[in-house]
Amino acid sequence: MERRKVQVTGGSTFTVSIPKDWARDHSVEAGDEVGFHPDSGSLLLTPIDDTDTDKGTLTITDMHGEELMRAVMTMYVSGFDVLALEAESIDPDQRRVIRDATQGLVGLEVLEETSQRVVIQDLLDSSELSIHNAVRRMHLIAVSMLEDAVTALATRDPDIARDVTNRDDDVDRLWYVVSRIFRGALRSPTVAQEIGITREVAFDYHSSARQLERVADHATKIATATHDLNDDIPEDVVDALETLQTDATDIIETAMDALFADTADEATALATQARAQVRDIDDQARDVDDRLHGLTAHHAQHLGLVVDSLSRSADYGGNIAETALQKAAPTPNP
Fold first, then answer.
1. Which one of 16, 141, 185, 198 counts the least CB within 10 Å of its CB?
2. How far out from the chain centre does Cα 119 lie?
């Protein structure tokens, strides 16, 4: 860290010089403009670049299937507003993957399409996106998926199970939005200002969203078990699973209330409560496992995976509570 003295010019203007090495490294010269961004008690200095840095080009000649899908998603999360996908000849399978990726990400539309090039543009204004609302929406969908997955299992209802699986795509879309906003806030102080939160809070929301995405994945696993079981589940096992699901959901709900609490004291109290509840889940899970001993090996195996998914979901709620505690904790001066 270099220390510079603040000087006053003209009787009212505060000035400070910038390090010459930094200016040279970022091609800042006399007469150029720089930007200042308030950030949690600090003032960040950035060079202003008027060139287009939000366009990305990717050669997809040898990319197919999952690899191509992942590449498009990675460029989206990285923050490119315009994605140009190029090859000597884009085949029908590649076009299908690109189309599926576009439909699976919020805000993307195909802008141009030729035999050798597909251009995708993000039509959303980053200043209009709310990471807060996206995480809240993820939370509501994930806990409803968990409840409906156990209902589908208990009633052997394939339609409810299928609906749970479909909603996992909604959670994934929101997860990519949160990741895109978070990475944008890390990369540019301007983005953090536009979305109205500090980068530390963006990190907390991103960490919590990851836990919610995992909860949704486990709800999908539970829904899948509905299709794998051949016989009805004993009533006492159903009751135990429903109780375990209710308690796991309560932990997630309490942890999310802590994350979004208005005061540090409220957040700490709620997060501490959620973490204490997690400790009881292990005993409940063992109790349900004991009830599975009299079932066939096929049923015991699949229901054991359900118990594990519910237990892990409670753990993810505990992780959110831990994030809420860190968010509420005092921070040292920069």
1. 16
2. 25
pLDDT digits (tens, 9 = 90+) for 251-286: 999 999 999 999 999 999 999 999 999 989 989 999
DSSP codes, 155-211 = HT-HHHHHHHHHHHHHHHHHHHHHHHHHHHHHH-HHHHHHHTS-HHHHHHHHHHHHH
Identify the residue whose tokens are 């690109």.
Answer: 98
User: Cα separations (Å) of 123 from 56, 57, 79, 96, 129?
Assistant: 15, 18, 12, 21, 11
The answer to whether 152 touches 161, Cβ cutoff 8 Å, is: yes
Beta bridge partners of 56: 83
Which has more pLDDT, 9 or 273? 273
Q: Encode pLDDT of 84-93 as tens digits.
A: 999 999 999 9
Q: Tell me the three-class secondary structure of 228-279, residue by residue.
A: HCCCCCCHHHHHHHHHHHHHHHHHHHHHHHHHCCCCHHHHHHHHHHHHHHHH
Whole-prediction pTM value?
0.82
SS3 of residue 316 by DSSP = helix
For 115, which DSSP code?
S
Burial 27-60, CB ≥16 within 10 A → b, else e: ebeeeeeeeeeeeeeeebeeeeeeeeeeebebeb
**Lowest-pLDDT choice from 43-47, 232-236, 283-287:** 43-47
Count of Cβ atoms closer than 10 Å to residue 76 Cβ: 25
User: How far, in Å, CA of 197 to CA of 180, rounded?
Assistant: 15
DSSP result, 36-65: EEEETTEEEEEE---S--SEEEEE-TT--H
